[in-house]
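Troubleshooting: if your tokenizer reports a length mismatch, compare your output against this known-good record of 324 residues.
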Amino acid sequence: MKHLMLGLGLALSLNGLAQAAQTEQVGKSPWGSQDEIGALNRITPESVLKVVQRISSGKVYDLSVEYFVGMPSYYFLGQPRYQIWNVHTPQGTIVDDPNGLGKEKNSQISYSGSAISMYVHTGTHIDALSHFGLNGKIFNGYSAADNLGDRGWHKAGVEKYPPIIARGVLLDVARYKGVEVLPESYGISVEDLRNTARTQGVTLESGDVVMVRTGRMQWFREAERYMHNTPGLTREAADFLADAGAVVIGVDNISTDVWPSQEKDNWIPVHSSMLSIKGVPIMQNVNLESLAADQVYQFAWFGTPLRLKGADGSPMRPIALPIQ
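Known-good structure output:
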């Protein structure tokens, strides 16, 4: 039933997207007609040096989830689950002798090897600007008809993203609201974000990586509970962060958007608003619990997606170090 409700919510959302797309168009990049990375252009050698020089502690906060069989993912929508399997084992290598070394030498080497398979939007990951579009185009006007091949996008693939080093800001909305976890399908408003920042003594700046905490990450090991009717950003709240100059927006749940949607008319999801119109990469399943526990609200944020040519997203393992 939970899967049915979420699937129905997605179907209604896509229907609303189709209607809204008739009036809204993809954004044009202020960084030129050839731009493929959008807001990440705000990261410069000068901005990187500025934030790195402010690091005040050697304590490293790991913001990634662990990948495991059975982890949360949208498998009921047809996306492949995370899988891991052995392609070489010590005993199997002895029996098969694939390298021709002989059983005696193979028994000394004890060779193991594994392989994985998953949807690129699994676990802690970042979305490329090609992930969502409007009217057959993605950010900066690149059309799927001309730029999407059988082996991925020729434009705006995630391999175009640079290593991301910037000031990071945590907006712990759950703590501000006085709850462990935000309620089901709660839409985080602009007022929530402003009040959270003010309570934490944080001012948003252009060039920030902004992480928004709902508290859902505490349930990550309980996949059904974690995925059911997630709270998330309203479009207005996401637009507020983008207009403040965010270079990346991340959340600690499986969907940046509220599920099911609370918005009825002329609806564009946060995914399309950010990726297609604003040119701001978004992240999901970011583990913000350790930062929240220590009330670390400003930090140097380091994250690098895998250079998967043509892919519309990539897993990544971001880290944070406190700054002055």
